[in-house]
Amino acid sequence: MAVNRRQVVVGTGAAGLGFTLSGAVSSVFAGTASAATPKKFTGYGELVPDPKGLVDLPPGFRYTVLSRAGVDSLTGGGAVPGAPDGTYAFPLGPGRSVLVRNHELSPGGTDLVPQRPGITYDPAAPGGTTTVTVAGDRLLSAVPSLAGTIRNCAGGNTPWRTWLSCEETEDTPATDPALTKRHGYVFEVDPFGRLRDREAVPLTALGRFAHEAVAVDPQSGCLYLTEDASKPYGLIYRFLPRRPLGGPGSLRAGGKLQALQVPGVPDLSAISELHTTVQLSWVDVPDPDAATVSTRKQFAAGQVTQVPKGEGIFWSGRSAYVVSSYARTADGAARDHAGQVWKLDPKKGTLELVLLIEPGGRFDGPDNITVSPNGGIVLCEDGDGEQYLIAPSAEGVPYPLARNAAGESEWAGATFSADGRWLYANIQSDGLTVAITGPWWRG
What number does CATH give the domain 8-442? Predict the structure, then answer.
């Protein structure tokens, strides 16, 4: 499919995105995944200004604020924590979902995650997760489910219905004497209460680095992880568990951590032609726990491939979709871009560039990513200026799905209910979690 990367899209005023998702419905929620002729997605129209000044949406759509950090209360006491980030909605019977929501809090922050017995890792750390039960746009309960962690940015769901919450840090007591434990780990959170621990358990075998997100292959049980780091840039990792698909707690049995290598490509930002497909290889990480040297620094030049601003990753169908938020030559990248999405196909052992955002357009800086029940991608923007939820079409056209009308805080944690009726998302710095619904079929 030929795509003009600088195309101006009539009706959106947006710089063109090149995008393809083979075999997927191109709408966010039009038709059904099995429809013989899925409806072509052409957006939902320009956004309507919100009289309340919070969230602009297309005509016919509406939102409800589920919670406000520091204002609303958790079930059992304490305020809703701040900086909501990566989130996933697990089905919980007809019309209900249970959300596990990260809080990307750093030491010295406010609106901290309350620390309770059985869920706390390091009493000196402010972050963690909350578990939120909803019926559509009605909040039923909200409780802390992980505490004592740092910068819980994104994460990922597992096939056995748990949430993997990722610390985006490499802090230790040596770098911050207030801390009591080393940080930079992944933690498993079970919204259904099957894990019964005295304290939060770090999954050390998954590596200690500035974790961003994780996706699990439901066929093989392999995990794919992103790293948001610089000097040098972070890597994409693969984790081969000793007990693949073993259920809650099985990742504690350990496994092998490997880093991605694309032969001849030291930096993924160097690739700029859409649909470029490269072969993958994997290199063992010498010391996953990074006792003395960060994992990304344990390799010789050219031995692994760096990814500028490695961000969201989400499993859909038979592939993982991986986001590079932006790349700047001024920061050492091979080429400037304002966002890439890569399709990682484990069976073929390939990585394909399926979305590219060139600098200078309406949208930039994609971060978290999700895929609707019918295959449509939604990106959370964390760029400059106005911040959008973006729904790209299969033809390479980006459409605005929502805008933060209150300010320039990033969107985060977009996730659909299992029936596709509700899209839950966070506005991070404003501390808001919202539920969005509307005529998804109209697109």
Answer: 2.120.10.30
